[in-house]
Amino acid sequence: MPRPAETRSENKPAVTEPVSSLDSPESPKETVNSLVANGLQVIENQSFEVELNHWGKAKFISGKHLKDGVFKASFYLANEQGNIIYSFPEFNGNEWPSFEGIRAVSFKDLNQDGLKDVIIIAEYITGAGEKGTTPFPVASIYFQKAKSFEALSDLDEKINSAGKNETVEEVLNFTRGWKFE
């Protein structure tokens, strides 16, 4: 698998806070419709209704948007009214030049904490060289916390470097026995 020119220098988990914050409890600031109006292209066949412990029933939204002339992946949770209740941290594959699509999304409790985590396998291209238009997979796991999700960049890097990113089953097998902290 190709490697990006730059890798993350921090080993800290990537975490974002819920969109609806304590300073504005009356309603979330964004909706699926407002994101679409601002350029988000929802990937319908990789967006799902899901029950996510602390979040309850929500719709997991997979999308792509243009940034600096190339597509990047983005993920959200929306409530039944279409209000965005959570924006996921930046997907680690967005370090690559161009997002091509989503290969798989799965909801499993990987770290045995009783909360469903989100496994995503996306496809990217480098756009350069002989195989520049051949998509390659990039996997990431978002671990559910009380009111956020976090991605462990070290674990994601190990999964992708080992090439255990083609299927959800490969990701699950690779992380079996992993010591999550």
What do you see in this structure?
- By secondary structure, the chain is mostly beta strands.
- Helices cover 13% and strands 35% of the residues.
- A 5-stranded antiparallel sheet has the order 1-10-9-8-7. Strands 2, 3, 4, 5 and 6 form a 5-stranded antiparallel sheet that branches.
- A hairpin with a 2-residue loop joins strand 4 (57-67) and strand 5.
- The radius of gyration is 16 Å and the shape is flat.
- The two termini are 28 Å apart.
**General form:** flat
Number of helices: 3
Q: Quick check: average pLDDT? A: 84
Give the biggest sheet. Answer: 5 strands, antiparallel
Order of helices and strands: EHEEEEEEEEEHH
Detail the poorly predicted runs. 1-13, 15-28
**What's the helical proportion of residues?**
10-25%
Radius of gyration: 16 Å
Distance between the termini: 28 Å
Number of strands: 10
* Structural category: mainly beta
Q: Which strand-content bin applies to the residues?
A: 35-45%
Strand order of the largest sheet: 1-10-9-8-7
Short characterization:
The protein is mainly beta and 181 residues long. It contains 3 helices and 10 strands.
Give the SSE map.
Blueprint: E1 14-15, H1 32-37, E2 41-42, E3 48-51, E4 57-67, E5 70-78, E6 84-87, E7 98-108, E8 117-125, E9 136-144, E10 149-151, H2 153-161, H3 168-175
Antiparallel strand pairs: 1-10, 2-4, 3-4, 4-5, 5-6, 7-8, 8-9, 9-10
